[in-house]
Amino acid sequence: MDPSLWSFFPEDLIDRVLAWLPLPSFFRLRIVCKTWNNLMHCKNFMDLKSSQTPSRSQDSWIVIFADRGYRVMSAFIPSENKWHSIPLSFLPFDISDVTVAGGLLVFRLHETNGASSVCVCNPLTSSWRKLPPMLGGWRDGLIGLVVDRQSRAYKIIVRSNLAPIYSHGLVLRTEVYDSRTDQWMRTEGLDDGITTGHAFCNGVLYFMTWETRSGVYGVYAYHVERGSWSKVHVPIPDFMTCPHVVECRGRLLMVGGFGRRPHFVTEGICVWELQDGSRDWVVVQNMPGRLFRELLNNSSLLSFNCVGHGDMIYLSNRKSPRLLVIFNCVQSSWGRLDTYISHDLHPMYSWFSYYPRLDAAI
């Protein structure tokens, strides 16, 4: 191509062409020149890109964080069967408790004075900001994010503690940040526990929690609009490992390993569904033995990641996502997919379903 010819090409036409590119192309696009790198921060281009056909579910991504310091986000695009690396080097150091929803990433920033701040970020535009201070102190173990796809407003749900009251110890509360008001508000509290994952379904955030007092798993439901908690009983086989709650097309599902005492060996993986009326869990299907053994990868203790993504549930061995076991929630069928990822991952990486949006406002 003749540079003297292309240098006179109207910029508005170039922008219109670039706006039709799929989002993964923007990672390569940004290194071409400063002008194209700055497109991510240009309001006119963002409006042009947003006017194109909205992303469909098959264009959404599955993301994992490759290292302990959250410097890289790895995105798997099912329609391409490809992994892409998204640099997060623009974020501050010493962050943790990351969660993802609706094109946004929320994380905890550990301040030098020992305090914690909540921050929100759009990884595609390399933009982030610190939210106003919480009303109480950060309490480990619970964070959730809900994004309205139409208004783009979002709410962040965290657990906080107030100052000790006499000899009764810390008072735990739930705090909710609302992007529409740019303020935090307190709602009722929740007993202490370690959250191992969450899913948003029909206006309710469901948290899979290890209850520190009783030593068992539980599912706690937070009604976002009412600001109230309730507990959902859990199907408890003789021995359960690595349970996850996931959402698929308005259905709340639980995926977990099961086995028998006293050997505490995982014998299979089961999918349960929560029934709306009775609030009971009903068995949907067990993973076929052949796929289970491949996922287990000759290990007697199974630890796996799991994420609901459109009509599918994706599972992988926690050591590596190179083999994906897929459950189709509509057809109730199982399958497998071999993928290639070029770099090593942190062994405790978590999975998220991510809807990439350049116009996701922080």
From TrEMBL:
Top-level taxon: Eukaryota
SUPFAM superfamilies from the UniProt entry: F-box domain, Kelch motif
Annotated signal sequence range: none
One Pfam assignment: F-box
Domain F-box residues, every copy: 3-48
PROSITE patterns per UniProt: FBOX (PS50181)
Segments forming a coiled coil: none
Protein name as annotated: F-box domain-containing protein
